[in-house]
Amino acid sequence: EALARLRADERSIVLLWAAEDLSYAEIADALSIPIGTVRSRLSRARRRLAAATGAVDG
Questions:
Q1: What integer pLDDT is reported at residue 55 of this predicted model?
Q2: How far apart, in whole angstroms, are the C-alpha atoms of residue 27 and residue 52?
Q3: Mean pLDDT across the stretch 14-27?
Q4: Is 58 inside a domain boundary?
Q5: Closest Cα partner for 42 from 53, 55, 33?
Q6: pLDDT tens-digit map of 43-57
Q7: Residue 34 within any structural domain of the chain
Q8: pLDDT score for 57
């Protein structure tokens, strides 16, 4: 599964965002990291997932 190939820090953010429906601010609070870090890790993870599944932005 593509999700399993993500780094642990990226995977946890994806799960909190997609499965738990938390906002960026809520994820930042839950993980004690800056909101900018949440944004960058989620962006990176989404690109990796898209590449792994063959999805194309557009």
A1: 75
A2: 24
A3: 96
A4: no
A5: 33
A6: 999 999 999 888 766
A7: yes
A8: 60
Pair of tokens at residue 44: 């990176």
Q: How many domains does the chain have?
A: 1
Give the structural domain span for 29: 3-52
**Residue 42 in domain:** yes
Token look-up 């994820």 returns 27
Per-residue model confidence (pLDDT) at position 1: 80
* Burial (0-12, 13-18, 19+ Cβ within 10 Å), 15: middle
Contacts of 39 (CB under 8 A, 6+ apart): 24
What CATH number does residue 21 fall under?
1.10.10.10
What single string gives the DSSP state of each residue in 8-46?
Answer: HHHHHHHIIIIIS---HHHHHHHHT--HHHHHHHHHHHH
